Amino acid sequence: MKPLSLIEKAFFLKKVKPFSELALDLLLAIAEKLYYDDYDAAERVFAHGQAANRMYFIIQGAVEIHDERMLPLYTIGDGDFFGDESLFNEQPRSYGAICRADTELLTLSRSHLLSIISECPSVAVSLLQCYAQQLPCRTKKA
């Protein structure tokens, strides 16, 4: 698949929990900061202990989250996001991520995420609500 247009990225974000309540003009501004990336099945997105500098949004595909022993914790798919918690605590990744199918991702750098939060604090509140509600994508079993 070819990379998404700006408007396609914005409409995708509208379906992702931390951004679902935002107005289209703000979604377009955020969408400008997203990068498209694709991975093959079995390709590693990042390893346990790796420095964190991006968060990931799954456009299409499946990503397995695993612990330091490579034991699966859960699998997430279309519309889910991951990798965000390490951007806030500035610690190395506490888990690894491997694609279980050909997967298309949008990525957001730490600096862009912090910029978005400073311009729109409601994004931070929404991220906190996601954690507080124990989203299914955070508790799925593989």
Structural overview:
- The protein has 142 residues and is of the alpha+beta class.
- It has a single domain (6-134), classed as Sandwich (Jelly Rolls), CATH 2.60.120.10.
- The protein is 33% helix and 27% strand.
- It is built from six helices and eight strands.
- The chain has helices at 6-13, 24-31, 85-89, 110-119, 121-132, 136-139; strands at residues 35-39, 44-46, 54-60, 62-66, 72-77, 81-82, 96-99, 103-109.
- Strands 1-8-3-6 form a four-stranded antiparallel beta sheet.
- Helix 1 (6-13) crosses helix 2 and helix 4 (110-119) crosses helix 5 (121-132).
- The longest helix has 12 residues, at 121-132.
- The model is unreliable at 137-142 (pLDDT under 50).
CATH top-level class: Mainly Beta
Distance between the termini: 26 Å
What's the helix-strand series? HHEEEEEEHEEHHH
Beta-strand proportion: 25-35%
Write the layout of secondary structure elements.
Blueprint: H1 6-13, H2 24-31, E1 35-39, E2 44-46, E3 54-60, E4 62-66, E5 72-77, E6 81-82, H3 85-89, E7 96-99, E8 103-109, H4 110-119, H5 121-132, H6 136-139
Helix pairs in contact: 1-2, 4-5
Summarize the structure.
The protein is an alpha+beta fold.
Key structural traits:
142 residues; alpha+beta; Jelly Rolls; four-stranded antiparallel β-sheet; 33% helix; globular
